[in-house]
User: Fold this.
Amino acid sequence: DIVMTQSPDSLAVSLGERATINCKSSQSVLYSSNDKNFLAWYQQKPGQPPKVLIYWASTRESGVPDRFSGSGSGTDFTLTISSLQAEDVAVYYCQQYYSTPYTFGQGTKLEIK
Amino acid sequence: EVQLVQSGAEVKKPGESLKISCKGSGYSFTSYWIGWVRQMPGKGLEWMGIIYPGDSDTRYSPSFQGQVTISADKSISTAYLQWSSLKASDTAMYYCAKVAMAGDWFDPWGQGTLVTVSS
Assistant:
């Protein structure tokens, strides 16, 4: 299985400031034949199911605010929220869909400082 | 609108069997994989497995292989997750989710089914 490790486990950021969450995979999730990284980011707010924010490591899902961005390639990835809003308080997960089982990171809890 | 609607919360005793459901609508049910994800209380997401309703091809996580059964009835656009003998450690929220049209991430998700196993 590919192991996904996120850092930090929790993060407190002031409103309007930048939040950065990292995700590292135990092996590359870059598929060389199409040059795509098989990596998604999800947001889960309390009492709700997760919602996809980013796929192919950097493609924003329709309707997701442009303050959310994804970057990285191979084994190291980052989710950035450029200017934190109150509604961004949530737990964020990365997931690889390169090979089954399509494993998730352990999650990063984002709070307001 | 693509929607997944899951069955309601369950309270069971250890050793009992259970089958929970996930009904898809708004898309061709037989053409997209559906998966199940476990979330134990206060914990993260665990990918359990996926099924392709068109031919019932199923892939399990090794962590869940032999512990649960994933199935689907394409005639009623419904996927299932079942246990033959529940344990207290099966207490969790279980989500179904449809694999996206352009890749194997999950989108959308069902609302979740809370399973509580307690004597």
Q: What stands out?
A: Chain A touches chain B through 24 residues (CB under 8 Å).
